[in-house]
Amino acid sequence: MKRNREIVVVCHCILNCNSKVEGLSEFKGAQSITIDLINNGYEIIQLPCPEMILYGINGWGHVKEQFDNLFFREQCRQMLIPYIRQFDEYLKNNYNIKSIIAVDGSPSCGYNKTCSSKNWFGELSGCKDLMNKINDIQMVEEKGIFIDELEKLLNEYNLEIPIVGFDELREDK
Ligand code: SF4
Q: Does 62 contact ligand 1 (Cβ within 6 A)?
């Protein structure tokens, strides 16, 4: 049976927009880059969506600071360990994992940038400075927490797999 032995790993919502916070998806189902991957013969591994798993489908949008705690980091590691084991097995057996595609801008899955604010927290009803809170949110050149933990695990297990950031806002609609 023919197989390419060429794998690409994608963050969950690249194949399934439904995991994204309601209102944030700029596409209808799966990102069109996955068509290119399939047409070029890549096998695709889909990582779990940490925000969907931990907060459910009706969560609000968060910033990196809200996830930067030991519980969230530990949960990310637990979700990622089964994938790290798979990556190790493939790499040891003559498969190539071409890259891991992250989602830039996400507080969890951003690689080149993530959304950040030190003021985005608290009860919103009756909040007198809501616009100030919203306007305080900015993109910073840092990793999201899930990808940060993924990169640490890759280093801990000596797995050399490049991570690239995918910016869905730059994609043609
Ligand atoms: S960017 Fe990450 S956390 Fe956000 S919806 Fe996609 S997979 Fe889930």
A: no
50 lines ligand 1 (CB under 6 A): yes
Task: Give residue-wise pLDDT tens across range 66-123.
Answer: 999 999 999 999 999 999 999 999 999 999 999 999 999 999 999 999 999 999 999 8
Alpha-carbon span 163 to 11, nearest angstrom: 11
Give the C-alpha distances (Å, rounded to integers) separating 164 from 36, 41, 120, 128, 135: 16, 19, 27, 39, 28
Question: From ligand 1's centre to the CA of 146, what distance in Å?
Answer: 9
Tell me, using a 6 A CB cutoff, whether residue 115 lines ligand 1: no
SS3 for 14? Answer: helix
172 pLDDT higher than 60? no
Any ligand 1 atom below 6 A from CB of 143: no
Whole-model pTM: value is 0.94
Question: Could you tell me if the CB of 49 is within 6 A of ligand 1?
Answer: yes
Tens digit of pLDDT for each residue in 20-47?
998 777 778 899 999 999 999 999 999 9
C-alpha 161/C-alpha 47 separation (Å) is 14
Ligand 1, pocket-test mutation among 52, 112, 115, most atoms within 8 A of CB? 52
Q: Output the residue whose Cα is nearest ligand 1's atom 5.
A: 20
pLDDT at 133 over 50: yes
